[in-house]
């Protein structure tokens, strides 16, 4: 569905739609700043179902299954500020540069998203202005404020991945995603690998790049913050029990990392 003349943000999100940003613990004192680009799977009312049957809108192509529960509990346990985005990555992917072809995907895994085909330039801009821009502007402003207040800030970007992608089974339980930061990722890898029976991916199932990612390169690397993404396999966090277990594990590990970083004077 093309939005004719939808350069005006108000045409994409109306009063019945919730704002794109969800936050927990905005006053949290932890050095960790948590982000969650694929937290939700809402679709602005005016876009209907993007031409997809209900079954597709709950799959991993629409959002990061299970991560919302992990992120909320982790934020509480760490006392860390969480900034999350509520709309589906099928509307606009908040971890892609807006210039990337996958920013508003026409195909995801093997599913064609007919509501994303043939979009007018204004319709593309409306999605960016209503969802992508406010989310990333807010992260920017929060980082600005923390730096101004000289508060240590370590960016952790939370994601989950499907256990099987395009027929390929993924063996990892959890993975780190990073590119240029040499401080946080090795500590995370070491402590995750110290957990019994975990298969830990080092930049698996994905690595970060400037072409395919946004949050880590723009808010982590370009701002000079220590940073890493964490990817958890979705079948492990499909239920509240699994989400709680993973939140607890990550809170414990990030707590240990905070102590190590303090000892090195890095936070
Ligand atoms: Zn994700």
Structural summary, described in words:
- With 267 residues, the chain is an alpha/beta fold.
- Helices cover 32% and strands 17% of the residues.
- It has 6 helices and 11 strands.
- The chain has helices spanning 54-57, 67-78, 121-148, 184-193, 215-221, 240-263; strands spanning 21-24, 32-36, 81-85, 107-108, 111-112, 154-161, 164-165, 168-169, 174-177, 200-202, 226-233.
- The strands form 3 sheets. Strands 1-3-2-6-11-9-10 form a 7-stranded mixed beta sheet, with helices on both faces.
- Strand 9, helix 4 (184-193) and strand 10 (200-202) form a beta-alpha-beta unit.
- Helix 2 (67-78) crosses helix 6.
- The chain starts with 20 loop residues before the first strand and ends with a helix.
- It binds zinc ion.
- Zinc ion binds at residues 37-38, 64, 159.
Strand line-up in the sheet with most strands = 1-3-2-6-11-9-10
Give the DSSP E fraction (strand runs of 2 or more residues).
15-25%
Radius of gyration, Cα only, in angstroms? 18 Å
Q: H/E order of the elements?
A: EEHHEEEHEEEEHEHEH
Q: Averaged pLDDT, please?
A: 94
Q: Give the biggest beta sheet.
A: 7 strands, mixed
What small molecules does the structure contain?
Answer: zinc ion
Give the quaternary arrangement of the chains: single chain
Helix content: 25-40%
Number of separate helices: 6
Q: Which structural category do the helix and sheet elements fall into? A: alpha/beta
First-last Cα distance: 48 Å
Number of strands: 11
| Low-pLDDT residue spans | 1-8
Shape descriptor:
globular
